[in-house]
Amino acid sequence: MSDVRIGIIGGGLMGRELAAVCGRWLHLVDHPVRPSIVAVADLDPAAREWFRQVPTLETLTDSWRDLVDDDSLDVLYIAVPHNLHEEIYTAAARAGRDFLAEKPFGIDLGASERIAAAIDEAGVFVRVSSEMPFFPGALRAYEYARSGALGELIEVRSRFLHSSDIDRSKPINWKRRVETCGDIGVMGDLGMHVAHVPLRLGYQPSAIYALLDDIVTERPISAGATETTRCETWDNALITMRGTSQDHPQRAFPMLWETKRIAPGNMNTWSFEAVGMDAGVRFSTRTPAYFERFRRDGSEQVWEQVQPGNVSAWPMVSGAIFEFGFADALLQMWASFLAERAGALGDRFATATVAEAVGGHRVFAAASRSSAEGGAVS
After folding, report:
1. Per residue in 309-353, pLDDT tens?
2. d(CA 75, CA 68)
3. Cα 286 to Cα 78: distance, rounded to the nearest angstrom
4. Between 3.40.930.10, 3.40.50.720, 1.10.1790.10, 3.40.50.300, what CATH number should domain 2-128 receive?
């Protein structure tokens, strides 16, 4: 087992989640590396202060450049607003740093392509955060779709729905400003979640038509304030397109990607569904204990529930009878990222790639054009 020293740039929620992940690394069975958080950079003193409780911590700083230039670090986790992605990601790549990037991997398509070029030139190992497919039911749904059992595809749906912005009194934040979030709005914040599995399955999008919706157009400038300011980015996005698969390239099937910050009744729901002429499969984090398979039994059409148990990409000490949650998905994503970096992932499900992140951006850019022009975009 080799030690991996990790530096975090951006000490917000997901940086703290990584610290917790490293604290429960012993849940993994025979993983080839042992990570530790040794450095954190954040402009906010309160955010930095939280990390003093991490026993392996050596460095706290307000400058991300201190971590990019630190040769003692093996890996960086970079979790910052979208407008900072290009500058920090390209600097990290040129410094020879391996890193896990946050979605959407650049504020727009052009930024994502420039970041990808810098990574290719530097030859560093980079992947993009996307944890939901590591739920056991999601992995089984992916594997079933990949197996070819579905036959000729009829349609595919990939969705990420939550209601974090349903409260009109919630103050404005960086995700509702074009300058920091980008024109793609909710597609940038949630889009990698819906793009990861379809693109991994080789479903190629075309003829993109989008309905983008800005529902809450103004928000308070701060908590409890009566003064409001304009919300500049999209709340919800419904993207329809044609998809082609490698197994049946002669026919383009309907594919839907849906991202919503205002989806009443959904706390934080990721789902994937693919239905073909021979079979179907679907999974939702609303019902994480099972996924569903469709089959024809003579004249009967049957959706059956299958409980995969607590079995994800990397084996854990917890028994298969126990149930899986979001923290486990994060642990599995990091296990995948660090195992692949070490050349020990094998045929297990891998973290989202740079190519998949750029591919998602191409869809989101086309969706923005479609919304502006009122028609389908190739």
Report:
1. 999 999 999 988 999 999 999 999 999 999 999 999 999 999 999
2. 10
3. 29
4. 3.40.50.720
Q: What would the two tokens of residue 241 be?
A: 């397109």
Query: What angle (nearest 5°) sits at the alpha carbon of residue 358, between those of residues 356 and 362?
Result: 110
Nearest CA among 251, 276, 254 for reference residue 208: 254
CA-closest candidate to residue 180, choices 236, 106, 248: 106
- CA dist 256 → 95, 274, 353 (Å): 39, 10, 21
Residue 7, token pair as written in the block: 């530096």
Q: What is the pLDDT of residues 8-42, one digit of tens each?
A: 999 999 999 999 999 999 999 999 999 999 999 99
* Exposure b/e, 98-134, CB count within 10 A at least 16 = b: bbbbbbbbbbbbebbeebbebbeebebbbbbbbbbbb
- d(CA 233, CA 184) in angstroms, rounded, equals 7
